[in-house]
Write a structure and sequence with these properties.
2 copies of one chain form a homodimer.
Chain A lengths: L3 H14 L7 H12 L5 H12 L4 H25 L4 E2 L2 E2 L1 H4 L2 H19 L7 H27 L5 H27 L3 H28 L2 H4 L5 H5 L4 H9 L4 H9 L5 H14 L2 H21 L9 H12 L3
Antiparallel strand pairs in A: 1-2
Helix pairs in contact in A: 1-3, 1-4, 2-6, 3-4, 3-8, 4-6, 4-7, 4-8, 7-8, 8-9, 9-15, 12-13, 12-15
Chain lengths: 323, 323
């Protein structure tokens, strides 16, 4: 039985060992660069932890774990073009460092390479693993499309928003966990429970991201407080405040969308309204609701509490972060 | 045994039956639009014809055939962004009709959908079919990168060019044929012969495309004669002329790259040089060399001449086109 830290080392070693061809340089250099930016590598960890938990072999899961991380990095490459994001993990994004065409084609190549990694597992698991992987990829694309649609759309409901973050973020965490379970040969019912656990954890994580942007311990977070407010990004906090603002909702909408008010003043004013409407408490409650649902999903799995301890302790740790 | 026309009908019926979700509209409308543009659907035909030739079931091959065509259309969507091509099959390209972001994301989704189609075949063939599909996708991306590189590069050799068109065009035709063979359960040696046949046919087709742009029967071709010359595109004819031009090569290079000379005058002058250097004859000889190699590959396959007649007649017909 490997600890979470041992699994993380295993993943880092696997990534360190990957070598891409040297030519054509404008195709493979951006891929090497992207993987060199690192990141938490949460998704491959979920693949391995889930596989181990269900009694599977890490050797059978390591390549699909790499495949899912490659896919995640591919989506970031393309998202950065669409969002015109100049930075990724504190460094220039591929689209900015090279150009859009390079980011498009390097991304396409990463997706194809990712699919090849998904095949390197137990023969009996291949079909289900690759099907889940590509179905999830479709859903992630749907989530990105809704995200772009909602930026321009006036009347986004909280239900719309939750469905968008389910697609854009939660399904890939859920698919990572289910992939590990499939490879371990877990039963269909357990596979669905671990998937649902991933969905609920994913929703909780994303809403916590929204919360910490405004109410996080900024010194540790390393980000400017209220970045989402300054950008006018439609987050759960904003949509909940809009819903609760009653007759003030139109003036609040105008304030939030404004790019003429100085940043610090805008953050202060929006935060005052959030505080008045007890948005922090609402949001923490919702995060906890999803977390409790996730624990409920875990408890339905036909394994002992001890067998699931590594995964549940690890996700509990992620839930507790305040930065 | 189905005729080529019957296989074409089968493919058209399969495409007609495909329905995509209605939302998000900006994700799925461009996919429906792209498939509605039609096209020759050569690649799925090669999958089915090869599968049938090796004694396989069309039902096992139809979904991977669709997958390969979806992949091909995805590459066109992304290529049109990179090449800033406003038209595709006589209609607005997706990137022009919507925008680049829509074309990027719809393309990504098509690639994921394509991978799902590749899985719908005989269980024993899945792993090999999906591996070949994604390896081919990587090579097609490499080909597109070389194509973009060579546009800016001064000293492109004929060897470079042949390798570029092998990757960009020939490998997908070869993979289509090999996919049909794998699904039919053909042996590894026969799979390699049919793949090599596809490579040589693909190279012959692409060079014929280059040739017909200058020496085609333009009335039937429906294109302006010399489009490649006007655009200054590095084709086999250009590279061969450059190699043969000796001391005149620098002035020829300047003429070919010029965008200031009126189009018709440029085409006339370049064609004069081509004629002087007997480029048409050289090119027709090379096309025939590749075609003969392809026939040689076919003759190595452990099937009767009769069994291979449908495929060899069909490709012979494609080779004969003069428009």
């Amino acid at each position: 039985m490997n600890s979470i830290q041992e699994l993380q080392l295993r993943i880092d070693d696997a990534f360190s060992a990957i070598r891409f061809p040297s030519a054509p340089a404008d195709l493979y250099d951006p891929i090497t660069y992207t993987l060199g930016l690192g990141g938490k590598r949460l998704r491959p960890l979920l693949v391995l932890a889930s596989c181990q938990m269900f009694g599977g072999e890490i050797d059978d899961a390591i390549n699909p774990a790499i495949g899912i991380e490659l896919f995640h990095n591919f989506t970031l490459l393309h998202d950065d073009i669409m969002d015109e994001a100049p930075l990724r993990r504190g460094k220039e994004s591929v689209y900015k460092k090279w150009n859009s065409n390079v980011a498009i084609l390097a991304g396409d190549t990463m997706f194809a390479i990712a699919n090849k990694y998904m095949l390197r597992t137990r023969p009996q698991a291949i079909s289900q693993v690759v099907e889940l992987f590509n179905q999830t990829a479709i859903e992630v694309c749907e989530g990105q499309q809704y995200d772009m649609d909602y930026e321009k759309q006036h009347n986004v409901s909280i239900t719309d928003y939750m469905e968008m973050i389910r697609l854009k973020t939660a399904v890939l965490l859920a698919a990572s966990l289910k992939t590990g379970a499939i490879i371990a040969g877990a039963g269909a019912v357990d596979c669905n429970h671990i998937y649902d656990f991933g969905i609920n954890i994913g929703l909780a994580f994303q809403i916590k991201d929204d919360l910490l942007d405004v109410y996080g311990d900024q010194e540790k977070f390393g980000k400017v407080s209220g970045g989402d407010i300054i950008a006018g990004k439609k987050t759960y906090l904003y949509l909940k405040a809009l819903e609760s603002a009653g007759s003030q909702s139109e003036s609040f909408r105008a304030l939030y969308a404004s790019h003429t008010i100085p940043s610090q003043e805008k953050v202060m004013k929006v935060k005052e309204i959030f505080n008045h409407l007890t948005i922090e408490q609402h949001t923490r409650q919702l995060i906890d609701d999803y977390y409790q649902k996730a624990l409920q999903n875990l408890s339905c799995i036909s394994l002992s509490v001890e067998a699931m301890e590594a995964l549940s302790d690890y996700t509990a740790g992620l839930m507790e972060r305040e930065n």
